[in-house]
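Q: I have 626 residues here and want to know how they pack in 3D. Can you give me a structure?
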Amino acid sequence: MKTSNSLLYLILLIMTSCAQPKAEEPIVYSYVEEPHSYAKPNNAFIKHLKLDITVDFETEVISGKATYDIKNNNSTQIILDSKHLDIEAVSADGKETEFSLGAKDKQLGQPLTITIDKNTKQIEILYKTTKNTEALQWLKAQQTADKTNPFLFTQGQAILTRTWIPIQDSPQIRLTYEANVQVPKGLMAVMSAKNPKEKTENGLYHFKMQQPIPAYLIALAVGNFDYKAISDRTGVYAEKSMLNKVHDEFSDMEKMVTAAEQLYGDYAWEQFDVIVLPPSFPFGGMENPRLTFATPTVIAGDKSLTSLVAHELAHSWSGNLVTNATWNDFWLNEGFTVYFEMRIMEAVYGKERADMLALISRQDLDDELENLKDTPNATKLKLDLKGKNPDDGMNSIAYDKGYLLLRTLEETVGREKFDAFLKQYFKAHAFSTMTTDKFVTYLNTNLLEKNSVTFNTDEWINQPGIPKNQAIITSDKFKKVEQVLQEFITTDKINKDLTKDWTPQEWVHFIRNFPTTMTTDQMKDLDTAFNFTNTTNSYIQMVWYEQALNHDYHGNNVDAKMENFLTSVGRRWYVESLFKAFKRNDRMEDALKIYEKSRPNYHSVTAHTIDALLGYEPETEAALGN
C-alpha cells in the first residue's frame, strides 16, 4: 500500500513534534516579599544543607564548607544572606563559579550573589566565621558552671544564622539539613537535629534534621556536658555539676508532651530534649526543634519556673510546625505559643497556677503598653518592621496581646470549638508558613463564619492598644496576695503565716505591686522578714531588685547583689528590665559602671539591646560581648 508524499510529510511532522522536548516553563512560587532577607526564593531557593565544619576554640572560628541542594526556577543566580563571614570560594555542580558580596547593611549584612545556570542543582561554599559573628558566643572555662572547659552556643533568631552560615535567612524558606561537626576531643556537640547521647572518642559528630525547618532554627552547642533521659523521647543535657538538678527540675517534661499531644495532635519531631546553657544565654529558652536551649535561671529547685519548658514545647506546633512567614507576623509564633503554654500548664499543674501565669502575662502587657505609649503603632499585632531590626518586634505585644486575642476568641466561641479549630489549623498547615492575612482568612472560614460569630479581628490585629471585648483574667490567689500587701501598707505589719505556702508567682505578684508611696523603711521591713535580697529564685530577684531601684532602697547589701546578678546573668529580659530601672531612676552613672563590667559576658543579642538603651558605644564593632 502506497502513501502519498503529503501524508508522509504529515506523519513526519507529528513524530518530530512529539520527539522535541518542550522548553521548561518557569514555576510560579508564592513566597512573599521579605524585608529582612536578600534572598529571592521565587527564582531559586535552598532545599537541603550539608555542613562540614570544624569548631576551633583557640581561634574562636568555625570553618568548613556548606553544600546546598537547590530548586532553580530557570534563574542565572541564587542569592543568600551573609554577615561578617569570610567567603573563600564557591562552586556550582562541582565547578568553580563567580560570586559577589553586595553592599553592607548594619542589620542585614550583605547579599551573597552566586552565578548558576538553569540546570544547576547544587552549590558549595567554603567559608569561615569571624570575630564579628553575632550568632556565636565563645565562652572561657570560667564562664561555665563546671569551669573546666570552654563552651560555644549559637543563637539564630531572628536573623543571626547568616552570621555563622551563609544561608537564605528568611523564616518562610524551609530546608532539611545534615552536618559533620569536628570539635576538640573530650567535648560534645549537639544541634537542632538527631543528637548523640554520649561523647565520641575523636570529637567528630554527625547530625540529621529530616523535617524542613527555617534557617533561624539551625542551632549548635559545644561543651563538656552529659545527657540524662527522662523518658524514651525526653531528656536533658547539662554540665556535670548541674545535670541532676536539671533532671529533677524538668522531670515533668514527658507529662507536658503528653498533655500537648492530647490538646493539638501528635508531636512531630520524635525527640524533645532540653540543654541548659551557661548563664550568658540571652533568652529564657529557644525552641530549636528536638533540642530546646534554656537558661539556667529557670533552675529554681521547685519546678516553679518550668512554664518556660511548656512554652518551648508549645513552639513545636506554633512556630516550628507552622511558622510566621515574615517577622512582621511574629505574633503568629508567640501569641499562639503563650496560649498553648497556658493550656499545657493548666493540664499538668491545674487551673490556679495557669490563672496566675495568665494574669502575670496580662500585667506584662500593661507594662509594655505603658512603655510604648509614645509609639502606639508598635502595639499592633501585625507590624511593619521594614528597615528595622526584627528584634524590635520581640516584645510583650506579640506574646501577651497575641495570647489575649486567642483567649478572647476561646471565650467567645467556647473552648471545645476553639480547640478543634486549633488542632485542625496545625494539621492543615504543618511544615509550612503563615502570614497574618492568610490566618485571618482561615479563621473567618473555619471558626467564625462556621459558628455564625461576629468578631472584631481587624481591630485586634491592625489597631493599637487592647479592644474593649478583651477576656478578663482573674486569680483568687492573687486577690489574697493583694489583701496581704494592702494590710502591710496600712499597718506596717505582716502576718507571715498568710505567706508560708506562697508560690514564686505569688511572691512576684506581691513585689511587683508595691505602690510608689512605699517607704525605704517598709522595704527594709519586708527584706528583713523575707530576705528578698538573698533569694535564689531568679524571677523574684529580678522584680525585687527593680523595686529596690524604684524606691531608692540600699539595705542588706542589695546594690552589690544586684551588680553580681547583672554581671553573671545574660538573660535579656532580666538585664533589660534592671537597666531600664536604673535609667528611669536617674542612676545612669551606676548603670554604665556595671554595664562596662558585665558587657563582655553578654551575648550580642543582649549587648545590642543594652547598648541602645544606655546609649553605649563600644570602641570597635568586634566588641559585641561574644
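Q: Anything worth noting?
A: The first helix runs from residue 5 to 19. The two ends are 87 Å apart (CA to CA).
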